[in-house]
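Dear colleagues,

As part of the handover before I leave the project, I'm documenting each prediction I ran so the next person doesn't have to rerun anything. This entry is a single chain, and its sequence is reproduced below.
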Amino acid sequence: MTPASSVARASLVLASVVLFGSCAQLGLPPLAGPGAVPITPPSVTFVGATLVRAPSTQTLAAHYCPELVQAPLGTGPLLCRQAFGPPPPPSAMVVSFDLVFRVANPNQVPLPLASALVATTLFPASTGEKLGAVCVSICPEGAAGCTGEAPPGACEASSRDVRSLNDFVDKSLPRLLISEGIALANGQAPSFTLPPITASSQVDVTVRYSFGPEQLLAVMRDLAAQSVNELKNGRLPTFTIPYRLEGTVWFDAGSIGRIAVGWGPTAGTWTLPVAGLVPAVIAPAMGAPPSYAPPRGAPPPAPAGAPPSVP
């Protein structure tokens, strides 16, 4: 055997060890040879969107009224305080929602989720639509210090059949959408780690997002401005946000590469609760607006107080 052929053979053996060793570390079979199993893309089905935290309509009115209502001798803020109470702190203005996905892995091996892209368009049917998009990186279970910050390329796709972050980044508002984590079951605290989706199984995955308060409040200001007469008369306006959601989930198939699965678009409407309680908002079908219902046992809305007298 010549020295050149020996080097070539050694290189081939080394490549095989690296390739098959990588598959074994992820619980995947070899790509070729006896026992090889083809990888079928998992299915990702959007189940629904649930509003889990939102300011009450009265809180929103207390925030916007001093800004929008004009009164003689600069008494607008005083009249607004009498009608709706003092302006709320920024911590009271957070809006968060959960997205639930049903993920089915038809393969004989587990598949880890690698990253997820979510884009939401607020007021999609209007000329003033606002878009937010965020990419989150998902770490293996037990990984320390995982923050969800996505490395370059985490939400990029070579196929035009799925959406990537580049499809949204030029049009989206920075920090309109913020990821808070992911969980396998309702009630779990969201984090950025997740175990692989086990072989031949189906699970519901919940991902939590929040809107950046400053960006969302700027968007909501237009709704408040349309209700300035209600604010002047001490009546609570209605804050209803139509939305459209879409995105892509990437799975890590080891040496085979990443598998991208798109979902959406799906549309619906969030109505922020008058009483400030958590409402249930579920999208029953793709493209169908969800229904709004206050939670069982919710108290009636608090009285708005005496309406200010504004000429």
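Residues 152 and 243 are 28 Å apart (CA to CA). The helical segments are 3-25, 57-68, 76-84, 213-226, 228-232.

All the best with the project,
I.
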